[in-house]
């Protein structure tokens, strides 16, 4: 009886955590929807340019080279439309393949963080409810890290640590957990508890990395703050004296 009650309590906790997601998760979902909309608009714009370009080429060919007959136009227009429609299936941004004999170039750290954010958000439905607060914290840190990661020296120690954590250790942690049998991923299982703890450690480490990335900006803020306090704290003119 006690075991059954404990199982029900864990299942209830999992349900509540899963359905009462944080503001961070909702904002991340909005960002993902915005990225998908932007991708769709880029594809539509490319398809429109392709259609207009091909039709312009056909018109110029008909005027300058050989007139195109009515039957040919009847076949050409649907063909151009189909080609433009097919281009909607192609991603608007492709990674360039590496040259022969060369390794694939590494993604910029900010793009790697964006992909990690997107990937973790996609997999949150598979994670237990107990791990979601830590996952939400990681998603928020990854989003905050992206603009600062662009300014990091790719060869620096901080960039190397961030790349390993974001691109290797975090996805491997999630993948190895999800590879466990369902019975070991139950809401109250030891594996679920350990996953939540490990994701919490990752969130803390990302917060530390973010602080290191922003150290120069923090120093600039502290310098300006001390100047303001030194210059104006005891200024009687500001008090109307």
Proportion of residues in helical segments: over 70%
Distance between the termini: 75 Å
What characterizes the major β-sheet? none
Beta-strand proportion:
under 5%
Order of helices and strands: HHHHHHHH
Gyration radius, rounded: 27 Å
Number of helices: 8
How does this model look, in words?
The chain is an all-alpha fold and 241 residues long. The protein is built from eight helices and no strands. It has two domains: 24-89; 107-228. Helix 4 (109-123) packs antiparallel against helix 5 and helix 4 (109-123) runs parallel beside helix 6 (157-178). Mean pLDDT is 80; it is low at 94-103.
Features:
single chain; 241 residues; mainly alpha; 2 domains; 72% helix; extended
Helix and strand topology:
Elements: H1 2-19, H2 23-64, H3 70-86, H4 109-123, H5 132-149, H6 157-178, H7 190-213, H8 215-232
Short description:
By secondary structure, the chain is mainly alpha-helical. The chain has eight helices and no strands.
